[in-house]
Amino acid sequence: MEQILKHKIEGIALDTQSLARLAEDLGRRRANDTVCGPEPDEADDGLEIQEGCTLDPVGNTTTHFSGEFSYWNFSMRIKQHIEDQMHSSMVPTDDLVRISGYWRAQQLDASHGHMATAILSCPPEKIARFLATVFFKYTESHYPIVDKEWVFDRIRILYTDSTRLYERGGESTIAILLTVFAIGTQYAHLESPEPVRHQAPDFSEEKIGATFYRNAVRLLPEIIEISSLESVQACLLFGLYALPVDASGLGYIYINLSIRLAMQNGMHRKCHGSAFSSEMAETRNRVWWAAYTLERKISIFHGRPLSVLRSDIDADLPKCEIRNEDQPLRHIARAIASLQLVYFLEDFFNQMQVTTVF
Fold first, then answer.
1. Is residue 227's pLDDT more than 80?
2. Nearest 5°: CA angle at 255, between 287 and 257?
3. What is the CA 280 to chain-centroid distance, rounded?
4. Strands, E assignment, 192-279
5. Chain centre to alpha carbon of residue 181
6. What CA–CA distance (Å, rounded) separates 163 from 222?
7. Burial (CB count <10 Å: 0-12, 13-18, 19+), residue 63
8. What pLDDT does residue 44 have?
9. What is residue 63's three-state secondary structure?
10. What range(s) does the Xylanolytic transcriptional activator regulatory domain occupy (predicted)?
11. pLDDT per position as a tens digit, 74-106
12. How far apart are the C-alpha atoms of 223 and 110, rounded to whole Å?
């Protein structure tokens, strides 16, 4: 290999120190490309990569994603070529059986028993709104996981027309609401005008929050099967609830599950064209980078391998735009600052690994 490289690339240095410097330089370039985006003369390369992947919305919040050089993309090219040949040869295609190119498992029927239990376990509406308000005040300051307006609209539906939540996808919605309530109980004492004294064991905030969490997590099989944007948000919230309890265990598992579900929906890739509305594209970006930031922090702090390469990501960073008055610019500015700090942390982590190897 050394002889081949020296023959093909004149003047290349292959000693250990030179290779280490080359690796560090590539890492810095990759970090700059991710934070700042590609330079104008590099834009064509990014477009070329994007042409090879598929981002196909198949529902309001569900997307089929297939990466470059995948079996799916190869098969679809063959399918398209055959269809073009049939059209050009004037072969009638009206009587052919149409098979959807998109497929996902749907064998698991939603457990109405678990859904009914989950809905019945919700607190009275005033308490629900209080816990949701606490959640957004103390938890969403750096991690824009769910939209405040969306959450309060679903709370309204929960207490006025809960039958709508039994539709497919409702499992993720009720899991999000219950986990928001559960996380709200972790910070509810901060809203008390007086110091919280000893509480009765049966009515402690910890036990009430655990009840919300347990009823939400029972819906996890359906949440994974649905594999929508709400599924990603639900698993992220599961992880956020578990962080104070077991960051390196349950928190790590749930947040990595959210990363996998997000990649299943292609949220790590740039949204091109008119496949998504500007609001949906921004929501996808915010949720993805929240998951990425949490995953990086937990993995590095607890000595776990990173789950996705930075070079595989080209999703846009969140935009500092006011979508409603309740979520001002500082809400997203903090998230972007937190992400940039994570980039520095990751670079230090990679440098330490290179130093250890050599």
1. yes
2. 100
3. 13
4. none
5. 20
6. 17
7. buried
8. 39
9. strand
10. 251-325
11. 666 676 667 776 666 655 555 555 555 555 555
12. 9
Query: Which residue carries 């590539």 as its tokens?
Result: 26
d(CA 186, CA 138): 10
- Cβ(223)–Cβ(170) under 8 Å? no
C-alpha to C-alpha distance for 63 and 275, rounded to whole angstroms = 10
Residue 57 is classified by DSSP as: E
Point out which residues pair with 63 in neighbouring strands: 57
Taking all residues of the chain, what is their mean pLDDT, rounded to a whole number?
Answer: 79
Integer angstrom CA distances of residue 141 from 96, 133, 205 = 54, 12, 22
pLDDT at residue 40, as a whole number: 40
Burial class, 259, CB count within 10 angstroms (exposed 0-12 / middle 13-18 / buried 19+): buried
pTM of the model: 0.73
The predicted-structure confidence for 133-180, as pLDDT tens digits, reads as follows 999 998 877 788 999 999 999 999 999 999 998 888 899 999 999 999
DSSP 122-147: SPPHHHHHHHHHHHHHHTTTT---S-
Amino acid at 274: S
Tokens of 342: 């994570």
Residue 65 contacts residue 265 (beta carbons within 8 Å):
yes
Amino acid at site 14:
L
- Do residues 235 and 171 make contact, with C-beta atoms less than 8 angstroms apart? no
Instruction: Note the pLDDT of residue 179.
Output: 97
Kind of pairing, strands 54-57 and 63-66? antiparallel
Q: What is the CA radius of gyration of the chain?
A: 24
Please give the structure tokens belonging to residue 209: 């929050």
The owner of tokens 């859904």 is 115
Whether the pLDDT of residue 259 is over 60: the answer is: yes
Query: Does the CA dihedral 288-293-294-299 come out positive or negative?
Result: positive
* Nearest residue to 337 via CA among 142, 129, 97: 142
The count of other CB atoms within 10 Å of the CB of residue 195 is 6
CA 156/CA 207 separation, integer angstroms: 25
Q: Where are the beta strands (DSSP E) in the chain?
A: 54-57, 63-66
CA atoms within 13 A on the CB side of 270: 17
